[in-house]
């Protein structure tokens, strides 16, 4: 009986302590909510840690006199602005590289000589220059085309994916999304320089086709490749919608891919399939010029519908 009585007293004492502790915590929470303008739960959302490391996504742009590729200079600049905004909202810092960044590389003059001898047009010369500009960055890093927009690839993911060295392409031979350390950027640039020739057996001498040529003729070890895959959605991850609302984003498609590459070709294809974002007064001739507007619609659709 005495043991039973002692056990009952112990249980009552524990219940008293737990109750008192709960009351104390309720009072503390009440005081906290009354003295802070923003509750702790909302403060976490509204006051992010600005000291958190953000990776840098680079792109390259050097204007071609008179415009290029079905777009005015203003449309190119607007597309770059849309690209910067999207990546920055996705947890990244951004940096636009130019001819100046490429010219500082020791291979630049040799590249120029070979590109001129091979009669490479101005636009494609600039595509080669970006490899030199990236090789000139202190630690190498990420590079994206400025018509390539983030889907699943957050800044946090970008940091994790950059922890191991090597050359990593996420668009296969299409250099729309690449991470490489400095020595790997330099290695690929040097290999390209060695290959460029008027007699090179490719359909057209562009950085994309030369990268494919290297892939077909060299081993991964010779190229320093550690990742070679296609994780980019070509175009807009949409299905046809009604005439009033326009195409609809398909989140299960969009969330499978790191980015969406809205290239010239994929935009024309999307327009023909009625999966180009709805923009009033559009014709197929406008698909390149209006890519900035289309990209903003894409990014908003992804944020509003696909992010939980």
Please name the defining characteristics of this protein.
alpha/beta, six-stranded mixed sheet, 11 strands
Give a quick precis of the structure:
The protein is α/β, with parallel strands linked by helices.
Number of helices: 13
Whole-angstrom Rg: 27 Å
Strand order of the largest sheet: 2-1-3-6-5-7
Backbone shape: globular
Parts with pLDDT < 50 across at least 5 consecutive residues: 1-50
* Count of strand segments: 11
Q: Report the sheet-strand fraction.
A: 5-15%
User: Which series of helices and strands comes N to C?
Assistant: HHEHEHHHEEHEEHHHEEEEHEHH
Task: Give the averaged pLDDT, no decimals.
Answer: 86
Helix share bin: 40-55%
Quaternary structure type: single chain
Structural class: alpha/beta
Separation, N- and C-terminal Cα atoms: 58 Å
Instruction: Give a quick account of the main beta sheet: strands, pairing sense, barrel closure.
Output: 6 strands, mixed
